[in-house]
């Protein structure tokens, strides 16, 4: 199955972008969001949107074996399979989509906390 992780991250970044966008760029971002949502299972896209409307991020990196959203330590097996499959894990505590962070990649969670 194709992973939707990059799409979800992109969607989240577009929503963050929307916070700062003005017309006519806002319309372009909204159109891009609609287009991207066609590629993402609806319930996943909906969660990103719901979290965004509450001022939270739904897609967070794995940080030292913990969820980047609530900092709950994830079971070792989960951490290992996330790293091995480059997949996505839904945190049982906060419901965030946790993805394994690649080296030297800036953290979306950090960016989000700065707004
Ligand atoms: Zn969590």
| CATH topology (fold) name | Helix Hairpins
> Any idea what the radius of gyration is?
14 Å
- Average pLDDT reading: 87
Structural class: alpha+beta
Characterize the main sheet. 4 strands, mixed
Number of helices: 5
Helicity, in percent?
Answer: 40-55%
Q: Name the overall outline.
A: elongated
Q: Write the CATH architecture name.
A: Orthogonal Bundle
- The CATH class, by name, is Mainly Alpha
Query: What proportion strand?
Result: 5-15%
Number of strands: 4
Spatial order of the strands forming the largest sheet: 2-1-4-3
Order of helices and strands: HHHEEHEEH
Low-confidence stretches: none
Summed up, the domain count is 1
Bound molecules: zinc ion
| Separation of the first and last Cα atoms | 34 Å
Quick structural overview:
With 115 residues, the protein is α+β, with helices and mostly antiparallel strands.
Question: What report would you give on this structure?
Answer:
- With 115 residues, the chain is α+β, with helices and mostly antiparallel strands.
- It contains 5 helices and 4 strands.
- Helix 1 (5-20) packs parallel to helix 3.
What keywords describe this structure?
4-stranded mixed β-sheet, alpha+beta, 115 residues, Helix Hairpins, single chain, 10% strand, 4 strands, binds zinc ion, 5 helices, elongated
